Amino acid sequence: MTLIMATNFNSTATAPIGYADTAPANPLGFRVGGLGFLLPAQGNCEVLGALPVNPIPKTAPWFSGLLNRRGTIVPVIDLHRLFDSTAHPPQKRHLLAIGHGDKTLSLWIDDYPQPVADIDEAPASPFALPDSIAPFIRQTYIQGGQTWLELDFEAFFNALGGLSFCPEAGL
C-alpha cells in the first residue's frame, strides 16, 4: 500500500523553503520515539509500501541502506539509531519518503503521519534534543502535551550526507 500525501499549505516568499511564517492550519506530523516532527508545508511526502531496503556495508548504523522508488535510488535513515534511542522501535514501522527526485530521503517512522490540530508555538523544546537534530530545528510547537518539531529537512539531509560512512572503516 502506498499513501501519497500532498502537504501544500499557504506560504509566503519570505518564509524558509517548505514552511509558512506561522504554524500551518492543519499540518501533518509523524513520530519517532518520543519526538514528533511536522512535515514540510511545501513538499512531497509519501508513505511507501513494503519495499526492500538494501544495506550498504561499512556505513553508519543509522544508515539502513538504499531502496528503489520508481527508478530513483533513495537513502533510508533510521532516526531511532541516529538519536541513540534507548527505546526499541515498534516492530511494524513505515517508510516515509520526503522530497522529490534525487533530493528524496526516506525515514523509518513509528506510525502513519497524522493531522496535528491546535498547535501552539513554544519558546523552546521542554527537553534536551539529540545533538544530531538540534541545529536544524526551526520552531517548536506544543499540542496536548506532545512536542512537535519543525525540522529543516533539507539542511538535515545535507548534513547526514557527510556522515553516512564509518570513519573506522577507512572510508
TrEMBL record:
<dbReference type="InterPro" id="IPR036061">
    <property type="entry name" value="CheW-like_dom_sf"/>
</dbReference>
<feature type="domain" description="CheW-like">
    <location>
        <begin position="24"/>
        <end position="162"/>
    </location>
</feature>
<dbReference type="GO" id="GO:0006935">
    <property type="term" value="P:chemotaxis"/>
</dbReference>
<dbReference type="InterPro" id="IPR002545">
    <property type="entry name" value="CheW-lke_dom"/>
</dbReference>
<dbReference type="Pfam" id="PF01584">
    <property type="entry name" value="CheW"/>
</dbReference>
<dbReference type="GO" id="GO:0007165">
    <property type="term" value="P:signal transduction"/>
</dbReference>
<protein>
    <recommendedName>
        <fullName>CheW-like domain-containing protein</fullName>
    </recommendedName>
</protein>
